[in-house]
Every structure is written in structure tokens, then in C-alpha cells.
């Protein structure tokens, strides 16, 4: 699959290095243009249908996050390329598909491109299809600890779980239950069922997903109308739940 991409980097030498690496090692990337500033990048993004943007963090008159703030409905994936590793958390919060540090490691660059390609291929293969999860049935019960004992819950009734520090909010169709267990606990307890960790704060019942949106990093709409963000790093795993 060919990926339409642009390169946003203010340093000419860094642009040349990355351009050459992409041309030599990532032949599935169709580099449509380059930008050295936020202003130039916005023009390229608005005038092209993009799959991927290679994005330096620090630029004149702003940074990568200022650029992304102006693109709330973006559908492309971003790969951050920077000399500073302290931006990693902000990059993840802005749904980066990958985070590369300079000097660029060629294997990591190839991994980043392969990851984005895999996500785009899976998204394309699912469009217009009758979706079936790999595990259609959800049978089983889950015990939830309470002060006076425990509650027994049918697993199929769970729409999604949300992390709340060391607690977890379990959302059913018409109510919410707060449990003194971490989200990691429920992720492990439900590992044999079609529950996907789509974000650091969310674990969703894939059978209750009614819509997938590419969006920034992507999101899913649950059967109760709740829209849940999908981290770019979790997107490929989530899409793999569908045939």
C-alpha cells in the first residue's frame, strides 16, 4: 500500500537526511511535499489527501502541537521526529502513531512506516464490509468486590470500562458501577473475551462498538452513544478484532 506523506521540518539538513532515508528504505511512502514552518505545513495538509505526516516538534513561531491544534478533524497519522525525548508524553496525548528521536534509527523509521501502513490497510479493508468480531459470543460472569460481599455481573452487559486512578468505572447500558480495582486488573480478567484496550483509560467491549471514526488518533462510538478515543498506538490491535 502506498502512503501519501509530507515532511515537516525546519532544518534543511534534517529534511535532507529524512528525505533520503524515506526514499531508500521506505519505498511505499509517496512524499508529496516538504514544509519548514507551520504555515507551509497547513497549506500542504489542506491541499492533499494524506496518510502520514512526519513532524518535527520544534519549529519557528510555534511547535508541532500548535500545528495539530489547528487540525482537530485530521485523518492522517503522525510520526514525530525530534532530538528531544521529553516530548514523548505530549506526542502520545496528541495521538502520535510513532515517536522517533534524532539521529534517526533506520530500523525504527521502517517500523514506524510499517505500523502506519498496517493500520491504513486494515481500515481500508473494513470499509463497506459486514463486520464480525472474531469472537461473536460473550458468555460468562464477573464478580465485583463490594463491602458486604460481591456482585455478579454478566460480562455481555459491560459496554466499556474507564480508569479512575486505582478505581475502575464499569459502564452498563443504564448505569455505572465504581469498583476498587485498576483497569489493568479488568484487562487481564477479560483477556479471553472481545474486550480491547483502546486507550490508557478505556477498555471497550468490541461487540458494543457501533461506529469507528478515523479522527485524530481515531475513536469509537459505543452502543450507548459514548465516543471513546482510540490511541494511535492501540489502533492496530483494536482493528484486528474484526474479520
Automatic annotation (TrEMBL):
GO terms for MF: DNA binding; phosphorelay response regulator activity
Residue numbers carrying 4-aspartylphosphate: 56
InterPro entries according to UniProt: CheY-like_superfamily (IPR011006), LytR-like (IPR046947), LytTR_DNA-bd_dom (IPR007492), Sig_transdc_resp-reg_receiver (IPR001789)
Ranges of residues in domain Response regulatory: 4-117
Membrane-spanning parts: none
Annotated HTH LytTR-type domain residues: 142-243
Superkingdom to which the source organism belongs: Bacteria
Keyword annotations of the record: Phosphoprotein
Protein known as: Two component transcriptional regulator, LytTR family
Organism encoding this protein: Maribacter ulvicola
Top-level taxonomy: Bacteria, Pseudomonadati, Bacteroidota, Flavobacteriia, Flavobacteriales
Amino acid at each position: 500500500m502506498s502512503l501519501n506523506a509530507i515532511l515537516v521540518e525546519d532544518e534543511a539538513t534534517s529534511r535532507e537526511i529524512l528525505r533520503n532515508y524515506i526514499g531508500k528504505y521506505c519505498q511505499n511512502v509517496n512524499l508529496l511535499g516538504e514544509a519548514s514552518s507551520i504555515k507551509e505545513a497547513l497549506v500542504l495538509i489542506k491541499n492533499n489527501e494524506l496518510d502520514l505526516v512526519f513532524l518535527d516538534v520544534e519549529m519557528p513561531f510555534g511547535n508541532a502541537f500548535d500545528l495539530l491544534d489547528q487540525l482537530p478533524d485530521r485523518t492522517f497519522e503522525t510520526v514525530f521526529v525530534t532530538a528531544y525525548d521529553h516530548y514523548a508524553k505530549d506526542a502520545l496525548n496528541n495521538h502520535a502513531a510513532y515517536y522517533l528521536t534524532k539521529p534517526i534509527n533506520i530500523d525504527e523509521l521502517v517500523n514506524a512506516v510499517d505500523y502506519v501502513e498496517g493500520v491504513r490497510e486494515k481500515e481500508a479493508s473494513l470499509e463497506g464490509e459486514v463486520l464480525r468480531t472474531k469472537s461473536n459470543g460473550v458468555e460468562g460472569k464477573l464478580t465485583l468486590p463490594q463491602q458486604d460481599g460481591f456482585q455478579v455481573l454478566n460480562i455481555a452487559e459491560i459496554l466499556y470500562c474507564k480508569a479512575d486512578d486505582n478505581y475502575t468505572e464499569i459502564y452498563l447500558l443504564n448505569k455505572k458501577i465504581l469498583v476498587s480495582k485498576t483497569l489493568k486488573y479488568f484487562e487481564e480478567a477479560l483477556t479471553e473475551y472481545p474486550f480491547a484496550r483502546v486507550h490508557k483509560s478505556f477498555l471497550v467491549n468490541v461487540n458494543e462498538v457501533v461506529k469507528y471514526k478515523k479522527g485524530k488518533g481515531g475513536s469509537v462510538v459505543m452502543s450507548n452513544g459514548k465516543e471513546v478515543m482510540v490511541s494511535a498506538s492501540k489502533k492496530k490491535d483494536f482493528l484486528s478484532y474484526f474479520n
